[in-house]
């Protein structure tokens, strides 16, 4: 089942996050580099975010009940919001450490061993992020996609840190280490803001993206033969489910059976396109036509 796959992936993320945190902490402990410390701090956020995503995916898989007739899918957006907030907190902590290191720069110890460990951790994150992104898109899971995006940001950050600490070790430019940590924090801050923006959009029932909306409108027009028009179209995502509502205008003398057949055709086409979807259609006589929206040719 789809929720089971999502749950296994979320649980896997927790294990990966702990493993990567251990590796990056070792790299920092061996070198004393503030840039590698910044990288390790972001991995602390990864652990917290992975645990939050696991809980959210578990809750979102619960079926609808009397208090939640539309299901629990929005729990995943709360996880994504929390992850965005944690990213921002991590960025502020990194900036604090970078400022202290800027005032009192120190040369990293045994840098090449620490960098080798960091490269291994980055490789693990890269492979897992690619898997999460692919599966998250298939399962349409906001929590998994948020985790994948954060990991990709971590990969870019870690790659920059590895190169930067290598430059410090080769050149002796001690000020470059805290500068790199500060740049890492700014990159993380931007990533956290983007994630917060998109997650809040899901909680606020934003409409589906323009390309998908155009596809929905095209399918409605193609499958509504016998009707006159469709208007007051509203869409939103809730986790992996897409909600579509609109008014279908039919000739006033059309039989209920005929209008119901049109609704069935439209609903089937939309569900084939969207996967998990809830379609609500309000049938109206031609006197209610607004001569706008989706016209049936």
From TrEMBL:
It is a multi-pass membrane protein. Keywords: Membrane, Transmembrane, Transmembrane helix, Transport. Residues 212-286 form the Cation efflux protein cytoplasmic domain. It is found in: Membrane. InterPro entries: Cation_efflux, Cation_efflux_CTD, Cation_efflux_CTD_sf, Cation_efflux_TM, Cation_efflux_TMD_sf, CDF_Transporter. Residues 13-204 form the Cation efflux protein transmembrane domain. Coiled coil: none annotated. The chain crosses the membrane at residues 7-30, 36-57, 77-95, 110-130, 151-173. It comes from the Bacteria. The keyword Transport applies. NCBIfam families: CDF. Belongs to the cation diffusion facilitator (CDF) transporter (TC 2.A.4) family. This is Cation transporter. It comes from Roseomonas haemaphysalidis.
